[in-house]
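User: I'm writing a tutorial on reading structure tokens. Could you give me a worked example: one chain, its sequence, then its tokens, then a sentence or two explaining what the tokens reveal?
Assistant: Sure. Here is the example chain.
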Amino acid sequence: MDQLIREFPDQLREALSIGQEAQMKPHEHPIHHILVCGLGGSGIGGDFVREFIQEACEIPFLVNKGYGLPQYVGKNTLAIFSSYSGNTEETMIAFEQALNSGAKIVCISSGGKMLEQAKLHGLDYIKVPSGKPSPRACLGYSIVQQLFIVQKLGLTDDSCTKSIGEAANLLDKEQAAIELLAQQTAKTLHGKIPVIYTTEGREAVAVRLRQQLNENAKILCWHHVIPEMNHNELVGWRDNYEQMAVLYLRNDSDLKRNKIRIDINKKIISKYTSVTEIYSKGDNKVVQAMYQVHFGDWLSWYMSELRDGIDSMEVDVIDYLKSELSKA
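And here are its predicted structure tokens:
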């Protein structure tokens, strides 16, 4: 897993090359909304893309992480299906429902049933490299291909894909420093239940970190977003919680009012548990997000290393779940 994490900047560059070569047929109807279907390591890419383009894209963008499709899916929908294996049960069922909807369907996968069906039905698809041992280590492929799909269909400009290249260069430059920061933070959080807080428009990074801590470090944690958590969860902080540790993911470009909120939050929460802040680097939201993703991936790995006998690659309980589902 540590080698897969270290290769993330190169994965971003490879994903850019794949996306630049991808071909998209124009849709015969105007696109009024975008729907991304995917789960886990394959689905989180949609959360990032939604946040990256929300200020520039003039149509709604929804990420669907279940079996069904919204009723509005039809001829005016761009439906992107993301499954690294190409066999994700929930995504494939949604995909089959979409086939007769008239939507513009584009698939992202390394193979499996999804690419077979895409070829059979003459759908657009982007094939990403196969053979990777874990979908969660393929985030770069998912994010970048989705960015290129909306760009090539004229729904956004090329600013985000350009920023991906900038992010890869920054991560190369900062690799050693990011690892060291992650290692130090892992020691602070070791033996604790992490509580991750970030600000609006940045939730995907927090979700990604939560998922990585779940799968790589095999620990439970939770996240929330400011300002929403100030209207509910903040009230819960009124007892000492030594078994927990709060981690703020911060950005110099955060809205001023949210920065003030975090400072007040810290004053309140630090009475009851430890508080750590991690600031991103980079000149825009895309680069800043990729910086914090890389930090979070390293953090999850170092936390797995601090836990004796934990294999960051192993996800036996998920394999068991899939095996039991196959019998139903």
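What the tokens reveal: The first helix runs from residue 2 to 6. The chain is about 50% helix and 15% strand.
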